[in-house]
């Protein structure tokens, strides 16, 4: 007998998404995989989002909507997850679109995978106006990492799991803490928890999700998604998962992000050496720490290196320099931007 289709629960926070919500719902209802439920949680919208959800739910029993007041994305995800019944869990953004085969392809791959696997698909950004180059670069980077099968190697650079395009077994999500931590950015924190729990990452090599960019996106306006929040999340996870006190730690870069990383390391009483590429700054002090030449990286025995240098061309040069002394990305050095 053929195996029964799993129920896939789609968790979707909604806040003032009325201009895009009907298109989003239509893309879910057009899925070639039909055994899904949508748990849509309105997070205190002041537009027509609730009426659009209620109308859709009245016509399709697979759609259930809940009003949650204005409590934020994490509370909305918790509510949706609590109400869900599926054996497999995914998340959706209310202003995006699914490719018709998204759930089918991701479910197939998850069913074929080992226990404790997170499945993703390729993503593509779109916008009604001009799409920023940064979004195009991020999508390209995500897709290339997924195809190569080594996404977690660069987890400190950016979130390597696209927040609205992942699928995991419910048991796996539970083991990773689901949506219980009250930590922003919540998608990045969940990504770190996937990594911390040893999940394998597999990607469907097709564009399965269309990510909409627009001026009112939370990532553009919510302070929980500011750059400092990302650094403040990365450093504690690094200290927990990849820092080894037996190896000398080096911080490379003294710009804004490098300085924030230094502050966090100093606060945690973590010893480190601080290097930069700018010769005129060598010997000067920041927060009482001397800035040194990058040559010391080659002189230290088995250093671990945090790199806070953002320009891609400079990162390429640094990678070659460290590879020349047999240091490996994701094992010995880590890009933090």
What this model shows, in words?
By secondary structure, the protein is α/β, with parallel strands linked by helices. The chain contains twelve helices and 14 strands. It has an eight-stranded mixed β-sheet with strand order 3-2-1-4-7-6-8-5, sandwiched between helices. Helix 1 runs parallel beside helix 2 (49-59), helix 7 (186-196) packs parallel to helix 9 (227-241) and helix 9 (227-241) crosses helix 10. The radius of gyration is 22 Å and the shape is elongated. The mean pLDDT is 94.
Helices, by number, come to 12
Low-pLDDT stretches: none
Number of strands: 14
- Report the biggest beta sheet as strand number plus sense, adding barrel if it closes: 8 strands, mixed
Structural class of the helix and strand makeup?
Answer: alpha/beta
Overall mean pLDDT stands at: 94
- Described by the principal axes of the CA atoms, the overall outline is elongated
Gyration radius, to the nearest Å? 22 Å
Q: Which range best describes the helical content: under 10%, 10-25%, 25-40%, 40-55%, 55-70% or over 70%?
A: 25-40%
β-sheet strand percentage: 15-25%
| Series of H and E elements | EHEHEHEEHEHEHHEHHEHEEEHEHE
Tell me the distance between the termini. Answer: 50 Å
Question: Looking across the biggest beta sheet, what order are the strands in?
Answer: 3-2-1-4-7-6-8-5
Quaternary structure type:
single chain
